[in-house]
Amino acid sequence: MRAVVQRVSWAKVEVDGEVTGAIERGLLVYLGAGKGDGDAERAWVLSKVLGLRIFEDEASGKMDRSVVDVGGSLLVVSQFTLYGDVTKGRRPSFDAAMPPEEAERAYEAFVRDARATGIRVETGRFRADMKVSSLNDGPVTIWIDSARSK
Q1: pLDDT by 10-residue block (mean), the chain, 150 residues
Q2: Of 50, 67, 94, 113, which alpha carbon lies 20 to 30 A from 121's?
């Protein structure tokens, strides 16, 4: 499972002109599931997202606090293109991405597990044409890949 995580002042996602999810201070999480990803990969990525110490503490101004520590929220947006492979040619291959039906279950499980921690979680709409807007704070953008956890 892969995630691109951005620290944001605000973020929102729209589908057909309707806002399906919006947050203030927190993390915009683009989430993709790969073939073979399961519960362990999902749990590892979620723990990394929630534990990232990328918010500044007031005393030292250093990035030392997590989204949980600062009372922030998550906006989780499905993003199968995180598995795009451009090794050969210029058109991305998505062969490593999990099939859509399985990926939707993995995405929903990630959202469910995140909500179970008590953090506020907003979402996009799986397999929809989404328009995502955000104000990246920093900017801070982190790449998380469960394949690197091994």
Answers
A1: 98 97 98 97 98 93 95 97 95 96 98 98 96 97 90
A2: 94
Q: Residue type at 21? A: G
Task: Provide the token pair at 21.
Answer: 């999810």
Token pair in block for residue 112: 């469910």
Q: Which residues carry out catalysis?
A: 79-81
The Cα–Cα gap between 124 and 122 comes to 7
The pTM (predicted TM-score) of the whole model is 0.96
Token pair 């990394």 is found at 48
> Which superfamily does CATH assign the domain made up of 2-149 to?
D-tyrosyl-tRNA(Tyr) deacylase (3.50.80.10)
